[in-house]
Amino acid sequence: MSLIDESPLEALQTYFGFKEFKGEQELAIQSVLDGKDTFVIMPTGGGKSMCYQLPALMLEGVAIVVSPLIALMKNQVDALRGNHEDPAITHYLNSSLNKSEAEMVRADVKSGRTKLLYVAPETLTKESNIEFLKSVNISFVAVDEAHCISEWGHDFRPEYRRIRPIIKQIADVPVIALTATATPKVQQDIQKNLEMVDATLIKSSFNRDNLYYEVRPKKDALKQIVQHALNNKGKSGIIYCLSRKKVEQIAETLAVNGIKILPYHAGKDSKTRSRIQDQFLMQDVDIIVATIAFGMGIDKPDVRFVMHYDIPKSLESYYQETGRAGRDGGEGHCIAFYSHKDIEKLEKFLQGKPLAEQEIGSQLLQEVMAYAETSISRRKFLLHYFGEEFDEINGPGAKNCDNTRYPKQQYDGQEEIHTVISAVLEHKEAHKMQFISALLTGEHNREIDDYDGVKSSFWNRGKDKTDRHWNGVIRQAIVLGFLQKEIEKYGVLKITEKGHDFIMNPKPVMLAEERNYRDVDSGDTMVQTRRGQGGVADTTLRKMLVTLRKDVADEKGLPPYVIFQDISLDEMSIHYPIKEEELLRITGVGAGKAKKFGLKFLDLISKYVEENEIERAEDLLVRTASSKSSNKVAIIQQIDRKMNLDDMASRTNLTRDEVLSEIEQIVAAGTKLNIDHCIEETMDEDCIEELFEFFSESDDEGIDAACVEFEDTYSEDELRLMRVKFLSDIAN
Asked: What superfamily does domain 630-731 belong to in CATH?
């Protein structure tokens, strides 16, 4: 019975200030208010949390919300408190609270002030908490991220399987289960485990028509990521990787290319992770590079792109992660990089796990491969996977993927579809796709041998095509509705009514050849060193830049190399930078040099490009992170604290020579450093003046000439330090 007499719509305006519900929210809320078990399947960004938050505020007692992540609970509690005067309106009870904090939460719940209590499944199973919850008036239980119940879900949590027995111990109350990613198989698991087979099922469309889906071959992926980030500067984005190491590498590369970026993974402590989330929400950083742990429950509406450097382990993961883009209905670009070699790596990770887990993991990977390699509408493929039909010609967002925008040529696959369905029929609808494709190509494997595949009338019948081709035909037959996968025996092919009709009355069926990523190298060949990147210098422009450099040097009374080094001119004549941000990606050009000397060079290049009608390549030079670049900030800070070279070396785990090289690179890029304290350890004022004068008159970019001139007077380290001082004081 409602605590208040308002209608759900009136309560929505009272508590949240919204004038209308989103999608199927009102149906779900009314079902909970009516005391019915309710199963809500809504896409990411569909407003699932409102389906339990509003009825909790309207009903007597406290609603228990089972949630899998501490960060998710905190985010929702903070958001809800922002809409209410009393902070006790909602609490969470989990391992992040100390004893006194937990007692305060229990006191607020007991007093009736708290209307929503978020708990982790592990917290719910503790005997002391069960006894406490028995003593309070509970309105209902909400099981958020309910896909965690299923082993076929992408985030299986064994503790979730204990939720229903514990609810029974606590109170006889309705249950609302919510998820954004439930295939028919996972949906069945959830309802069976929570004993809510007869629940009110509210299923919104999985279609996010504003999202653009794209799969690219994983070739030079890091370079493409940097270019996309630079082309979308100021826009929010998330980049997902499967390993912490790759997260750090990509974050570092983006950072040195001037992107506001932070890495996020489980290797960071909870306070750091929480701070990173807050910085992303507050737009202090544009991009987060993260493992899959990031994003669940992060309610940021303006994420404009989600990129997957590594293909996820399941389509559920992929759908949920891409769903964090464009939650406000605006632009949302979803790019995944795919290589068959990555699938092979993921398959190796499954080895050694229990057989049941291997089987599930393998089937989920097959679905990911199918999505990546398909040539049909990616939206139609995804929605079919979640049990939803889609009109790929007239449906919302029909042209919003790479396959529909740039379609592959189609052919009449009537005979091939007939062959596949007939093979499934002959083998009594008892096998999976891999068996049928191996049968048609005449490929021996354990299953073929166990079932005497060589005696089949279909053995080797499709030998003129590859297994990849036949897998593609079978996948398209499934999406077109001729075949379906058994839910109980997941992956076993069954013939639909439409398929049986097709066998009796074949007719033309248009198919597309699957995309081939089998030979794509999953490495990042572009990430060598910046000096080793390809490109041919424009010799005419190079000469003009040399002349300009000499003019500027004469005007300033400086050696030409102080203005820009030769390698900088080389790269300018390859990549034609015409904006300051492009100039900053040239070796040896930092913010200081770009401001001090860059304008004349950019003007010259811009006029040259225009007069000669040069089409500049989009793939401008990408700065790659040095393996030691993370030491640069530490070295600058240590110089500010006036530490000497030996102390800096011991603190950064570098040699003295490596520290000096780092200092040279920092200054060469245009940063001003005061290293007087290092020089004054061994040299007096006269020595400094002598070397300063020498470097101001020398045209040598290095210290070779100085070594010859002062062979018996100064050490190489002293000469290098003085050259750094000269460049820092004069050029920067």
From this structure: ATP-dependent DNA helicase RecQ (1.10.10.1390)
